[in-house]
Design brief:
Distance between the termini: 97 Å
Strand order of the largest sheet: 1-3-5
Radius of gyration: 30 Å
Number of helices: 5
Bound molecules: heme C
Shape: elongated
Length: about 190
């Protein structure tokens, strides 16, 4: 006789238990908030060589994997022979959680690439890494292009004095010619 109220009571209890358990059982996404603040360095592709490189500086580690666009994941954080273009680099940890960073590999003309290399090689520490002398900082490609005439006057013609500033040696004849050739070809990053 008391079986019906008992069953209904049991049923209600079961439903309550089920709801409670289901709430607790809510799956937490193990990849939620995966955010690596990915940092990278890159070198641009020169001429038609498709020789850009990408180095993922952070995150690095034994269990990390790296992917360029839809390519295969690799354990190396270093990509070579990268053509000019826009890329998405994906990093993946051992749980399969991913984070991405977007970057662009530029196409430098060979003459600009040569000038950029000599500026990086000879104009630091006075005009690179945020340092400004004579109003000049050459950290960006745009600053080299915009100041090409002054760069030539000082580093090629030496008027009124040569850059790199004494007591540093002036550029070699070969390096001076690289600046002249680049400007004569148009003086953009594509030249
Ligand atoms: C050891 C430090 C030092 C190095 C290396 C150096 N500079 Fe300078 N540069 C200076 C200082 C100091 C000034 C400001 C005084 C002056 O103009 O002479 C200056 C000024 C300049 C100016 C602006 C003045 C103007 O006449 O327009 C240019 C352009 C310049 N440097 C180009 C270069 C280039 C290109 C290189 C590398 C090939 C270079 N410098 C290497 C110290 C340096």
């Amino acid at each position: 006789m008391r079986i019906v109220p008992f069953l209904s009571c049991l049923f209600t209890f079961t439903v309550i238990l089920f709801i409670a358990c289901n709430k607790k059982g809510t799956v937490i996404d193990p990849c939620a908030n995966t955010n690596y603040n990915i940092t990278f360095s890159k070198t641009e592709s020169i001429g038609t060589l498709n020789n850009g490189t990408i180095s993922i500086m952070q995150p690095q580690g034994d269990t990390m994997q790296y992917q360029l666009n839809n390519g295969a994941f690799q354990s190396s954080w270093y990509f070579t022979n990268v053509a000019p273009g826009n890329y998405i680099v994906t990093v993946k940890n051992q749980k399969g959680c991913t984070d991405t960073v977007h970057l662009t590999i530029l196409n430098y003309g060979p003459k600009f690439a040569a000038v950029k290399q000599l500026v990086v090689g000879y104009c630091g520490p006075c005009h690179l890494g945020g340092t400004v002398n004579g109003g000049m900082n050459f950290d960006t490609d745009a600053s080299i292009v915009a100041n090409k005439t002054r760069i030539k006057v000082r580093a090629v013609d030496g008027i009124p004095t040569f850059m790199p500033e004494a007591p540093n040696a002036p550029l070699s004849t070969v390096d001076k010619q690289k600046i002249t050739d680049w400007i004569n070809a148009g003086g953009t990053i594509q030249n």
